[in-house]
Amino acid sequence: MTQTKPELLKTIVDALATIAPEVSDFDLDPDVPLREQIELDSMDHLHFLVALHQRLGVDIPEPEYAGMRRLTDLVEYIAARSQANNPS
Q1: Range list of H helices, the chain
Q2: By C-alpha distance, which of 86, 33, 26, 20 is closest to 56?
Q3: Mutual orientation of helices 42-56 and 71-85 as an angle, nearest 10°?
Q4: Which of 15, 51, 56, 84 has the fewest Cβ atoms within 10 angstroms?
Q5: 27-86 per-position pLDDT tens digit
Q6: For the whole model, what pTM was predicted?
Q7: Cα separation values, 61 from 25, 38, 43, 49, 88, Å
Q8: Are 7 and 56 in contact (CB under 8 A)?
């Protein structure tokens, strides 16, 4: 089942909250890099991407990590991969 972009955003933020529980106290701006909004070191970021893979089944190859800075980047990337894996 393909999620809408708002549903994907919620799933992504929920996964992020498992790595950085303080996000539940913030209203994250999807267009601002995550590291500018919350403390997220490189290991946290890696664990976050692994958590996304586990929840959504979408692989994010290591060369793509640098491009996954904002929530918007993640939503667009995952939506595109999900649609490619589940054509209508």
Answers
A1: 5-19, 34-37, 42-56, 71-85
A2: 86
A3: 30
A4: 84
A5: 899 999 998 998 888 899 889 989 999 999 898 898 998 899 999 999 999 999 887 666
A6: 0.86
A7: 30, 23, 15, 10, 25
A8: no
